[in-house]
Amino acid sequence: MNPDGTAVFFYGLFMDESLLGAKGIRAPKPRVGYVDGYGLQIGQRATLVPEPPARTYGVLMMLEASDVGELYSGEGVSDYVPETVSVVLADGSVESATCYNLPASALQGTNPEYARSLLDLAGRLGLPEEHLQRIREQSESRAFPEEFLRFLRENTLAEIRVGPDRETFLEIWMVEVSGRIFARSWNRSLSGWFGQLVRGATGEVRFGETTMPISGESLPAQSPLMSAIDRAYLERFTQPYNVPYAEAISKPEYHAYTVEILPIRAGLS
After folding, report:
1. The 258-263 sheet, strands edge to edge
2. C-alpha distances in angstroms, 40 versus 10, 53, 126, 139, 178?
């Protein structure tokens, strides 16, 4: 490796030597490794987010500093920010490297085509099954249709009903974090839509004239995603009449009443 180069840890499509080669960038002897304490999140683009229990696999490459600068000055990647990570390699050695990540506020939406391409590349690189499964979960079960995500960005309320006996819809707040959708029980109650959802009942979300089948998954109160969800409430509901409620629902006492909304792949109606 070039001793004057820059060690970079890639976890997205830049792991592909042929893609870098097409950009005129030579990456000799790439090595597979992992970083602990970061989880892979895929929205329109991919990034790593602090997540203490997580482990993310990728490729360590030594590149010319000028190539790295050019790589991250292009359209769609210029807002990635460098940070230093410790990469554990196959032989157990640890090397310090630069890893480029998106600010949390810049990760939005979904990109199934990107996720499928990343899954294919990770498979070809021989990355572990648990890493492939994380990509699958984000590219398949948690992938919401773009029209739903757009509706949430443009409207403060969506409608939900859960359970076989519920006939009417209830308006609630939902927030998007890295293309995933979360909601909280305002009354901090295990009855109603929240309690049924975390106990395994299915339901529907209605946005505009469209209805979408959903399920839910309770989020542990200690989840590293909680701070991002708190922030999403505060950043989304800034209307003067909503601010007091946003400040309340983003407090720690609401963490135990957080559920991730998951689409059921039956489609829209």
Report:
1. 170-172, 158-162, 203-207, 210-218, 258-263, 180-184, 175-177
2. 11, 12, 17, 12, 10
pTM value is 0.62
**Domains identified in the chain and CATH numbers:** 6-139 (3.10.490.10), 146-263 (2.30.110.10)
Q: What is the pLDDT of residue 41?
A: 87
Q: What pLDDT does 130 receive?
A: 92
Least Cα distance to 33 among 82, 120, 99 occurs for 99
pLDDT tens figures, 200-257 = 999 999 999 999 999 998 988 888 788 889 999 999 999 999 999 999 999 999 999 9
Q: What's the DSSP call for residue 101? A: E
Give the closest residue to 212 by CA, choosing from 136, 110, 114, 143: 143
The total of other beta-carbon atoms located within 10 Å of residue 143's CB is 21
In DSSP terms, which residues pair with 221 in a beta bridge?
A: none
Could you tell me whether strands 175-177 and 81-89 are parallel, antiparallel, or unpaired per DSSP bridges? Answer: unpaired
Task: Give the DSSP H/E element, type plus range, for residue 223.
Answer: none
Q: Do the beta carbons of residue 45 and residue 76 sit within 8 Å?
A: yes
Residues lower than pLDDT 70 in the chain: 1-4, 109-110, 139-143, 178, 265-269
Q: What are phi and psi of 261, to 5 degrees?
A: -85, 125
What's the CA gap between 87 and 95, in Å, rounded? 5
Strands (E), 66-173: 81-89, 94-101, 158-162, 170-172
Residues 193, 205: Cα–Cα separation, whole Å:
11
pLDDT number for residue 1 = 43
Please give the backbone phi and psi of residue 10, each rounded to the nearest 5 degrees, phi first.
-105, 140
